[in-house]
Design a protein that fits this description.
about 375 residues, Aspartate Aminotransferase, domain 2, 2 domains
Length: about 375
Amino acid sequence: MKFGTKVIHAGIEPDSATGAIMTPIYQTSTYVQEAPGQHKGYEYSRTQNPTRSILQANVAALEDGRYGIAFSSGLAALDALIKLLRPGDEIIANDDLYGGTVRLFQKVYAQFGIRSRFVDLTNPQALEEYITDDTRWVYVETPSNPLLRLVDIEAICAIAHRRGIRVCVDNTFCSPYLQKPLTLGADLVLHSATKYLGGHSDVVLGLLVTREPQLAEQLYFIQNATGAVPGPQDCFLVLRGIKTLHVRMERACANAMAIAQFLHSHPAVAKVYYPGLASHPQHELAKRQMRDFGAMLSFELDSDCIDDAVRLCQKTRYFQLAESLGGVESLISIPAAMTHASIPPEQRRQAGLRDTLIRLSVGIEDVSDLIEDLQQALDSL
């Protein structure tokens, strides 16, 4: 089954009771049992819900995995992963990460003795020098947020697995349409389905996908025991969004490439971070590891003045000033003041994240309108 067919049919059948082609929203908390402990596979909706089960099966198929586990948000999914660890255990992650991820590692779980180290993993061999006897997981965002740095998933997995260490890849920026981490060797894939999977900026939800039965069993236990589960309405919205994932991504990627080329040639722009540009230091890796180059890009103005960056973000019309990403509409943001504000300034600077960096989530609008919007905003400076 090809990807464009999977998004519509994998794990999904017409409703057995009515023939409804759309997955029903099973808006119920409990289920009637024939006798104590005798039921139809569902007893309480924290534990199982039919709408959630279908979403989990669908996303597992899209990632070429076997088990999908849904949570109330992407951070709740990451929280479940960290709950697999014990005091004294360590996670190694790349040093350019979503601010909420860093906050969870440093400000929530550090106090329980779970250590995290943030290092440059763009050179996979560098991982060797950071691994210790306490390292249990390597956590990777690729492309990274917001500097669009790539990590060679296959190489990182080979190094980690030789030492008995598992690898989790946050695949949010790519979606399973652009990148398949499990196929490249990862043990676990994480999604903030709020972004490209949902695709319409109307839901918050997270997902984990794996091929390993034992790992899945542990995560299902945590999902039920801690209760950070999505409601059936949210699961329905993500299922509906997934049906158009491939066509949305094709359009958004094409738009992003055109915008990256425009910005790259504009005299007011000093640097563009986009894997699709030949000038990107990991362009060849992107060509090998990804189907296309994604719809996220960042850039820096030919100015160190934060007021210029703020003014540009306030001048755009179609690029709306907002956090998040992956919707059909285009968004603009300043990560240091928004999505990454929880990271200490010195740590941001060490990772190469300047206060004036501007991030774009490119949507599916007409690309000529988007370029014209950026042009008039840049001209206003």
